[in-house]
Amino acid sequence: MKCARRNRGVTLPEMGLYVGLLAIVGLFVVGQWGNIQSGVRAEQAYAEIVRVKTAAEAYRSAPAQGGSYKDVSVEVLADSGYNVEPLTDGDDENVYGLDVGVVSKGDVDATITYEFNVEADCEQLVDRLTGAVGVKGTPACSGSGPYELEFDIE
């Protein structure tokens, strides 16, 4: 006698379970989307800050500068061929659409300012830059929106 073969498809209760699990995972992802985007922007901000810091240090080390940050700015760095991408379009807008600046603070130091519209991102970058090579003192966030990260470089 032949055995009857059972169809091996997905039953309606199983399908309901799968859809329910996907909905729960989807709700979690949607709920965390803001945090994910904030983390991505903070990483981009860190990369921009490091790029400006590295370019300013290279500018100071150039023979024509004689070890001085005199007349340094993001525009001067970009015009001199230093890599400050994506800040080379003349408006110095960072990933948040806000300002980035570097100015001479005497001959041997310069101050970098970076504006955020999210305080948590600013604080996260303070933590990452505190004690970093070339960063003088402790970076600090100030303001009530936009928040301004400011630190000196040697």
Structure keywords:
elongated; alpha+beta; 154 residues; four-stranded antiparallel beta sheet; 4 strands; 3 helices; 19% strand; single chain
Structure description:
Helix content is 44%, strand content 19%. The chain is α+β, with helices and mostly antiparallel strands and 154 residues long. The chain has one domain (12-153). Strands 1-2-4-3 form a four-stranded antiparallel beta sheet, covered by helices on one side. The model has no long low-confidence stretch (mean pLDDT 86).
Task: Provide a quick synopsis of the model.
The protein contains three helices and four strands; from the N terminus they run ααββαββ.
The tally of beta strands, per DSSP, is: 4
Globally, the shape reads elongated
Which structural class matches the secondary elements?
alpha+beta
Low-confidence parts lasting 5 or more residues at pLDDT below 50?
none
Number of domains: 1
| Oligomeric status | single chain
Share of β-strand residues: 15-25%
User: What's the gyration radius in Å?
Assistant: 25 Å
User: So how many helices?
Assistant: 3
Mean pLDDT over the full residue set: 86
Give helix and strand order, one letter per element, not per position: HHEEHEE
Strand arrangement in the largest pleated sheet = 1-2-4-3
Query: How many strands, what sense, and barrel or not for the largest sheet?
Result: 4 strands, antiparallel
Give the helix level as a range of percent.
40-55%
Straight-line distance between termini: 90 Å
